[in-house]
Structure to design on (280 residues):
């Protein structure tokens, strides 16, 4: 087995081969074109099928918005949004990641066949470690300062890279102490989660060091974020080129997985980037 192997439930990836693309599938009511849940499942399935045609490696399903200022949703509502989507997509031949902080959702998702749990809260909720411990699903351990409700109010660090690295180390150690295999873990500095643009840029530049220090693959999510808007001066709906630049900057730093909205464009950009880099 490669040293760069990622165990992801029913699937396994050799991360040394090429960077992977994780496609974002939001199943929050505001992400449907009819503004509600009426055609939610249809939209989700169509979106996932398009991502598969576009070459996605992992689909990340989220039932709770994590944008700055977003309210938390009750566990029952998150389950109502996410579970039918897992059932509808689980036989499509692509790993399903569930973006959740809630141990109850983690447990139900894993039973239903989810292959990865993406926790922006770094598996800090009581019961989160236990919820994922005994499965073989992949895990994304992300750093966040504060909560989505207050995280952008006043991000504050003495040494952002050192503090984020120390946090990720501690959370990964906690998982490993529970018996979780290293091959299941990816780490994520959490761009935009309690960080200023300067913090985000420092973290982007530190990906390769962080990956080397912790010996775990980095997953980077920069797609359409305010950092891209700040650097380019572009509104949300004009951030495709900036987001592609962000994905390429992250993989040039060694990130093994990029989490993106625009799968087709990112897959193409990475193909060209890879053709032009040596050692492949
Ligand atoms: C859910 N979510 C939103 N942004 C994210 C990011 O940057 N990384 C991960 N792992 N999840 C994210």
């Amino acid at each position: 087995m490669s040293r760069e192997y990622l165990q992801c439930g029913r699937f396994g990836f050799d991360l040394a081969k090429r960077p992977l693309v994780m496609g974002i599938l939001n199943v929050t009511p505001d992400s449907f074109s009819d503004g509600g849940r009426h055609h939610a499942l249809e939209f989700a399935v169509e979106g996932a099928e398009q991502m598969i045609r576009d070459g996605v490696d992992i689909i990340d399903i989220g039932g709770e918005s994590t944008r700055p200022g977003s309210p938390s949703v009750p566990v029952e509502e998150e389950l109502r949004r996410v579970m039918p989507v897992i059932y509808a997509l689980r036989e499509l031949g692509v790993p399903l990641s569930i973006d959740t902080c809630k141990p109850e959702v983690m447990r139900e998702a894993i039973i239903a066949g989810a292959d990865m749990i993406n926790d922006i809260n770094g598996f800090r909720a009581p019961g989160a470690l236990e919820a994922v411990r005994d499965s073989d699903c992949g895990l994304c351990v992300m750093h966040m300062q504060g909560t989505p409700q207050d995280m952008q109010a006043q991000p504050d660090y003495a040494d952002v890279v050192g503090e984020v690295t120390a946090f990720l180390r501690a959370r990964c150690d906690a998982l490993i102490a529970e018996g979780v295999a290293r091959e299941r873990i990816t780490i994520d500095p959490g761009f935009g989660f309690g960080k200023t643009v300067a913090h985000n840029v420092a973290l982007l530049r530190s990906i390769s060091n962080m990956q080397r220090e912790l010996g775990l693959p980095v997953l980077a999510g920069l797609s359409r974020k305010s950092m891209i808007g700040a650097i380019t001066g572009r509104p949300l709906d004009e951030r495709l080129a900036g987001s592609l630049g962000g994905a390429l900057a992250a993989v040039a730093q060694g990130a093994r997985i990029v989490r993106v909205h625009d799968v087709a464009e990112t897959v193409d950009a990475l193909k060209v980037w890879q053709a032009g880099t040596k050692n492949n």
